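STRUCTURE REQUEST FORM
Protein name: Divalent-cation tolerance protein CutA
Source organism: Nocardia africana
Requested output: structure tokens
Priority: standard
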Amino acid sequence: MIARAVVGERLAAGAEITGPALSVFWHLGELGEGQEWRVTFRTAAAVRDRLAGRIQELHPWDSPEVTATPVAWCLDTYAEWVERTTGAPE
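Status: completed
Returned output:
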């Protein structure tokens, strides 16, 4: 639902969903375990903060994991697609 929303709103050019994965974590002072899915969004730096804010609005958790990995290199045509699709200024 989140992936469809943010791609539809053009905050991301695309999303890749993988999982489920087993997650073991501390939550509210207790050891927890459950299934999680990883969503990798393709977005432009110009809309990154808006994307993160929208994920926080839509996600059921108070503090979802939202991190970024900068792309050191990609094809120019790919970068242009991401920029064009997210409506980021060139």
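Reviewer notes: The beta strands are 14-27, 30-42. The chain has one domain: 2-85.
Form closed.
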